C-alpha cells in the first residue's frame, strides 16, 4: 500500500462505475447507520481497492485465522466488492446485519446504533484480524500483494492501519522544574468537541490548543516525584492517509444534540497542527464522504451519507434512494462524520510506530542538540483561575521519552463496576495510549452547569451609590456573568474528565437497560431516570477547586466586584 497511486481509484473501477450511480442499500429495520457507514467505506479508494482484490479473504482462508467462526473482515470485503461490481439499483446488506455482533457484542439486530461507534468497531475489528494474520506469518507487500511474512513482526503495522492510522504527539512541560516529556499515541480517527466552535477549523484549533494541567488534573512529574502543574501541548506526528473526523454533536448529561451549522470545506490543510518532530510537514486532504444524522439522539432518528464516486461526482445515499448531488449541497449539511483523503502519500517511517520513529530521529541528532532550554513561561492562567509564575529556567533540560502515562488524572473512580461487561472501549481517536483526551467513544460535549440561583437585585433601595456609579449588575450584565460561570465550569469539568465519566456511565446504563428489556421504543422516562441516577453518584465527585472558584466568583458578584480575570 506504499505506492502513491494506491491512494486513488484503480482505472478499472473508474471505467466500471463511469455510467452507474452508487448501489443503494435496503433498510432492513433500523439499519440506516450500517448503510451510511458501508457507503462511505465502499467509496474510500484505498480500502475499496483492497477489497476488490480480495487480499484479506485470500490470506484469511490460507491461515484459517477465524477457524469455524465467520470472519467479519471477509464479510465486509464481500459486501464492498458487491456494491462496486453488482449491476443493480439496490442490494441488501443482510449478511452484515445478521452478523452485527461479530463487530461488537454490544450491538443488537433491529436496534438503531450510533454510526460512529459502528464505524470504529468495524475498523478496529478489521485491524485486529490483520494482527492475527501477522501473527500467523501473513502480510502485504508494498503494492498490496499477499506474501509470507515474519511471524515475529510485532510493530502492529497492518494494511488497515496504513489506510486509517495516524499518531498524535503529546508534549508536557512541568511548570515546577521545567522537565519536558513526550509520548506518542496511535489514532484511527479524531473526535472533536463542538464547545464554542462554529467550524471544523475552530474545533481543530480547540483540540490542539495548549492546556494547563492543574488542580485535580495535575501532572505526575517523574523529575519532581510529585503532582505538579504542567503545560500540555498536542500536535500531529503522523497524518493518516484517510482522515476520519467525528463532530461530537451529542451532549452527555442532558442527552441533547448540538444541531447548529458547523462550517467545513472540501479541502483541508493540517500544516498548522503538525509537530515539529514530524517528517510530514503540510498534509492536504480532499473531502470524499460524509455522514449526516437527522434526529435528536444517536440511537434514534435517521442516518444518510454523501459520497464522491470514482469520477468525482457527488451522490446522496439515503438507503435505497440514491440521487445526484453537488459539493454545495454537501457543504450545507449538518454533518456528523467527515471522510478526507490525502492528496499525496504520507511519508513512511521504517517502523510505523510513532515512538520508534521518534527514537530513531533522536538517535540521529547530536547530543548537544538534545539539550534544550525550556519555554519561558512567566505567567500562565490556568483553567481554575490560578495564575502560575515561572522564572525562565536557564539550566538546560534533557528531553526524555515518557515511560508512563502523561497527565495522570486524579479521582478516576470506577463508577460503573457493576456493568463491566458493557464498558465501552476508549475510542476517541486512540488505538493505543490513554492520555490524549481520555474520552470514550460516547458523544460527550459541553454539559450545562448552572450557577447558584440568585434573586433579582433591587437597586433602587439597596445599592443607591452603586447604581449612581453604574456598578449595579442587572439585566444583560447578570446574564453575561452567568454565561461566564457556565463556560468556565464546563471547561474545567471537561478538562478533568468528570464529564467523560458521566457520559460513559449514562450510555452504559442505557445499553444495559436496552439489553435487559430488549426495547427499542420511547426513552423519555429512561432519560429522566439516568439523569437522577447520575446526579446521585457524580455530584459528590465535583472537583473541590471548581466549587471553591464558583463560591469565590459568586461572593465577588454579591459584593459588586464581578472580576473577569479570576
UniProtKB/TrEMBL annotation:
The keyword Transmembrane does not apply. It comes from the Eukaryota. Its EC number is 3.4.19.12. This is ubiquitinyl hydrolase 1. It is an enzyme of class 3 (hydrolase). GO terms for molecular function: cysteine-type deubiquitinase activity. Residues 23-343 form the USP domain. InterPro entries: Papain-like_cys_pep_sf (IPR038765), Peptidase_C19 (IPR050164), Peptidase_C19_UCH (IPR001394), USP (IPR028889), USP_CS (IPR018200). One of its GO terms (cellular component) is cytosol. One of its GO terms (biological process) is proteolysis. Keywords: Hydrolase, Protease, Thiol protease, Ubl conjugation pathway. Pfam families: UCH. Belongs to the peptidase C19 family. The keyword Protease applies. It catalyses: Thiol-dependent hydrolysis of ester, thioester, amide, peptide and isopeptide bonds formed by the C-terminal Gly of ubiquitin (a 76-residue protein attached to proteins as an intracellular targeting signal).
Amino acid at each position: 500500500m506504499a505506492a502513491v497511486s494506491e491512494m486513488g481509484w484503480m482505472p478499472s473501477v473508474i471505467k466500471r462505475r463511469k455510467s452507474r450511480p452508487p448501489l443503494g442499500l435496503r433498510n432492513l429495520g433500523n439499519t440506516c447507520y450500517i448503510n451510511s457507514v458501508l457507503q462511505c467505506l465502499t467509496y474510500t479508494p484505498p480500502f475499496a481497492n483492497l477489497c476488490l482484490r480480495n487480499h484479506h479473504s485470500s490470506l484469511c482462508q490460507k491461515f484459517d485465522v477465524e477457524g469455524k467462526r465467520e470472519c467479519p473482515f471477509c464479510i465486509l470485503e464481500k459486501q464492498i466488492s458487491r456494491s462496486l461490481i453488482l449491476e443493480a439499483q439496490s442490494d441488501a446488506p443482510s449478511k452484515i446485519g445478521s452478523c452485527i455482533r461479530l463487530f461488537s457484542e454490544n450491538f443488537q439486530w433491529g436496534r438503531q446504533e450510533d454510526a460512529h461507534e459502528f464505524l470504529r468497531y468495524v475498523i478496529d475489528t478489521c485491524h485486529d484480524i490483520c494482527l492475527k494474520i501477522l501473527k500467523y506469518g501473513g502480510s502485504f507487500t508494498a503494492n498490496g500483494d499477499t506474501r509470507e511474512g515474519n511471524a515475529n513482526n510485532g510493530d502492529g503495522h497492518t494494511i488497515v492501519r496504513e489506510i486509517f492510522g495516524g499518531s498524535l504527539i503529546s508534549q508536557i512541560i512541568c511548570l515546577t522544574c521545567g522537565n519536558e516529556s513526550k509520548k506518542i499515541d496511535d489514532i484511527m480517527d479524531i473526535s472533536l468537541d463542538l464547545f464554542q466552535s462554529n467550524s471544523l477549523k475552530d474545533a481543530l484549533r480547540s483540540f490542539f490548543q495548549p492546556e494547563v494541567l492543574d488542580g485535580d488534573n495535575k501532572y505526575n512529574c517523574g523529575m519532581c516525584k510529585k503532582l505538579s502543574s504542567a503545560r500540555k501541548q498536542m500536535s500531529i506526528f503522523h497524518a493518516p492517509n484517510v482522515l476520519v473526523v467525528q463532530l461530537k454533536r451529542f451532549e452527555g448529561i442532558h442527552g441533547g444534540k448540538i444541531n447548529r451549522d458547523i462550517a467545513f470545506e472540501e479541502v483541508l490543510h493540517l500544516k498548522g497542527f503538525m509537530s515539529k518532530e514530524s517528517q510530514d510537514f503540510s498534509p492536504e486532504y480532499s473531502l470524499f464522504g460524509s455522514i449526516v444524522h437527522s434526529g435528536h439522539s444517536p440511537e434514534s432518528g435517521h442516518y444518510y451519507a454523501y459520497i464522491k464516486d470514482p469520477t468525482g461526482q457527488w451522490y446522496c445515499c439515503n438507503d435505497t434512494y440514491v440521487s445526484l448531488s453537488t459539493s454545495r449541497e454537501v457543504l450545507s449539511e449538518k454533518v456528523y462524520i467527515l471522510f478526507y483523503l490525502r492528496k499525496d502519500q504520507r511519508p513512511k517511517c521504517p517502523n510505523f510506530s510513532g515512538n520508534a520513529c521518534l527514537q530513531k530521529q533522536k538517535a540521529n541528532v547530536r547530543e548537544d542538540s538534545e539539550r534544550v532550554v525550556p519555554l519561558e513561561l512567566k505567567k500562565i492562567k490556568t483553567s481554575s483561575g490560578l495564575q502560575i509564575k515561572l522564572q525562565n529556567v536557564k539550566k538546560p533540560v534533557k528531553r526524555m521519552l515518557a515511560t508512563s502515562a502523561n497527565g495522570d488524572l486524579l479521582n478516576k473512580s470506577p463508577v460503573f463496576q457493576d456493568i463491566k461487561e458493557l464498558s465501552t472501549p476508549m475510542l476517541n481517536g486512540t488505538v493505543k495510549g490513554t492520555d490524549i483526551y481520555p474520552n470514550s467513544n460516547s458523544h460527550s460535549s459541553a454539559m450545562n452547569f448552572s450557577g447558584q440561583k440568585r434573586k433579582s437585585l433591587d437597586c433602587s433601595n439597596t445599592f443607591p451609590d452603586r447604581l449612581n456609579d453604574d456598578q449595579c449588575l442587572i439585566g444583560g450584565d447578570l446574564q453575561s456573568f452567568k454565561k461566564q460561570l457556565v463556560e468556565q465550569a464546563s471547561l474545567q469539568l471537561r478538562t478533568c474528565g468528570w464529564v467523560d465519566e458521566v457520559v460513559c456511565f449514562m450510555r452504559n446504563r442505557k445499553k444495559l437497560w436496552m439489553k435487559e428489556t430488549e426495547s427499542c421504543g420511547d426513552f423519555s422516562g429512561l432519560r429522566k431516570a439516568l439523569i437522577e441516577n447520575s446526579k446521585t453518584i457524580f455530584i459528590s465527585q465535583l472537583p473541590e477547586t471548581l466549587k471553591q472558584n464558583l463560591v469565590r466568583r459568586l461572593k465577588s458578584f454579591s459584593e459588586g466586584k464581578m472580576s473577569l480575570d479570576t
